[in-house]
Fold:
Amino acid sequence: MNKLLILVTIILLQGCGAIANTYLPEAVIADNDNTIKYFNESGQIKLSIEDITSLNGNDEMRKAFIAQAISISDKKCTQHQANIISNANSWNVGMGSLSLLLTGTAAVVGHAQTAAELAAAATALTGIQALTNEEIYANAMGTTIVRAIDVGRAKSLAIITKKTLTDSSSKYTVQDALVDIQRYHSQCSLMAGLIEVTKALEQRKLSSQEIELKQKQLEKNITTFATNIIEQNKILLPSTEVKVKQEQAINEMNERLKSLILQNVESPEY
Structure:
């Protein structure tokens, strides 16, 4: 039984890479048979001090180098995104199918001990599948993570493009570009995608119920603040300057209250 589980796991892991390629279109640009200057055979940037100096001294070559680096990063990122989706789908389909197979086999096997082992294995696989979905993908769909990766990379690419088009080589050097390119490429990771998803959740619009709660709390604070000021002023007899500041504070709180009321008009109910 243990050998069967190990064999199936190995098959699933080896098949993920091949399955990922089915999620990708055929390449529109052929790979260069020869090693492109400034890049090794794996497409990784490989620059010497002389190379950096040469690129900084030739504006067209500097732009071509940056464009090539972005192109290679995009290709690697697309493959990685396909892997994320295919791994999630292959894992769930594979583990779910194997669990059903073991459960069905356990129902027809006559040997009690073997049937019990098959049933136990099916239960274990179901638990492993649920735990993996919970921990690795944090209950987020693979497509959501891929979309979040695209959003993060679009922000970084905009910075590189703007600097490349508007800044001279003396202002936007190859050294600066390398930092930005590395940041751009780092956005293509499962961790970066999950961070973007988290940002989206944090920046979501508040529901009408949440806004109404904030509104009630703010109204209560305004009433309490105004009441306290009236009572304190009877005792302390503040100057005109202090009274002006007190009035400004109340006005600011009322403006925030108006803003919440307007925000509630366009907010979702839940």
Residues 4-8, 11-17, 104-110, 134-140 have pLDDT under 50 and may be disordered. Residues 49 and 55 are 10 Å apart (CA to CA).
